[in-house]
Write a structure and sequence with these properties.
Distance between the termini of chain A: 24 Å
Strand content of chain A: 35-45%
CATH class of chain A: Mainly Beta
CATH superfamily of chain B: Bira Bifunctional Protein, Domain 2
CATH topology of chain B: BirA Bifunctional Protein, domain 2
Helix content of chain B: 25-40%
Strand order of the largest sheet of chain B: 7-8-9-6-2-1-10
Number of strands of chain A: 8
Largest interface: A-B, 21 and 26 residues
CATH architecture of chain B: 2-Layer Sandwich
Order of helices and strands of chain A: EEEEEEEE
Radius of gyration of chain A: 13 Å
Shape of chain A: elongated
Oligomer: heterodimer
Order of helices and strands of chain B: EHEEHEEEHEEEHHE
Chain lengths: ~90, ~220
């Protein structure tokens, strides 16, 4: 299991707001695929997955503010059962 | 760093082409700086409020100003002929994924460009609050900044007024602020050709982002 973490975003940026998840719990994602969109004052950014796998747990809802360094989601990198082009979120 | 000139281009078409460039850069192509100009359009960032436009959208569109919601930070802004648009398509993995530093570099490039014309401008750091991100000449705003990031590659960017019809800003509360906009022409009386502005700005942008010379291509 690996954690998808909100990384450091630069000096003085302490948190960001979740705009939307691109996936749901139980869905598979590919390496480098954007999984969640967040917004700071002047930047909308997406956090991509560092591994292919299955999203097991999402910790924050859309509209919530997330401190830098927080775990956004858990990803099972050993999961390989998803068919190609598995159902995607919004 | 590639420098790409699109000239006058519809906003929607430029948005689509930016996303193509993002895919290229995320896949390993060199970062790029795109320079262009748009017909009149009001864009709504993720933090935008409809209260920051002063006419209904259908009336604006009757007056030739298209309204578009987009995936960038910031509030409401306006693009129009005479405004230099700069879209840095930058791989942030090469810059420590530092979003704030990227925004600051955009401001620095704008400040350096304006200095060439004897204009003393400041970025947000001169104003304090992050709502004041952008480029300012005294209390007047000359450039707005808002970016999107996908797979750690930036898109959207800067709108810097060169010869923009400043009366168009009366339709909006720029970036949600009660602020007066200005332009290079407003400040100096110069009507700098857009291509010359784009070439000059690109030089500063490339120097600030990676310290290298650049070669231009017209796309």
């Amino acid at each position: 299991m690996v954690r998808i973490i909100l990384p450091e975003l630069g000096d003085g940026i302490v948190d960001a707001e979740i705009v939307r998840w691109h996936c749901r719990e139980g869905q598979s994602v590919k390496f480098d695929e954007d999984v969640v969109e967040l917004v700071t004052d002047k930047a909308v950014f997406n956090v991509p997955a560092d591994f292919s796998g299955r999203i097991m747990k999402i910790y924050y809802n859309e509209g919530q503010r997330v401190p830098v360094g927080s775990v956004l989601a858990d990803l099972d990198e050993n999961f390989s059962g998803a068919p190609e082009g598995a159902e995607r979120g919004v | 760093m590639r420098v790409i000139h699109w000239g006058m281009i519809e906003y929607a078409s430029a948005w689509h082409q930016q996303k193509e460039l993002v895919r290229e850069v995320a896949a390993g192509a060199p970062s790029a700086i795109v320079l262009c100009e748009h017909p009149s359009v009001i864009t709504f960032g993720r933090k935008a409020s409809d209260a920051n436009i002063f006419l209904p959208k259908d009336v604006l569109e009757q007056r030739g100003v298209v309204c578009v919601s987009v995936d960038r930070g910031g509030d409401v802004t306006l693009h129009a002929p005479g405004q230099l648009i700069v879209y840095p398509i930058i791989n942030l993995k090469l810059f420590g994924r530092d979003i704030k530093a990227c925004l600051q570099k955009m401001e620095q490039a704008s400040v350096a460009f304006l200095r060439d014309f004897g204009i003393v401008a400041k970025g947000q750091e001169g104003h304090g609050a992050s709502a004041y991100r952008g480029v300012w000449v005294g209390s007047r705003k000359i450039a707005s900044i808002g970016i999107g990031i996908s797979r750690w590659v930036t898109y959207h960017g800067i709108g810097l007024n060169i010869t923009t019809d400043l009366g168009l800003f009366d339709y909006i509360r720029p970036c949600g602020l009660d602020v007066r906009m200005t332009s290079l022409q407003d400040l100096t009386g110069q009507t700098l050709p857009m291509r010359e502005a784009a070439e000059r700005f690109a030089g500063h942008c490339v120097r600030i982002f990676d310290g290298q010379d650049h070669s231009s291509r017209i796309g």
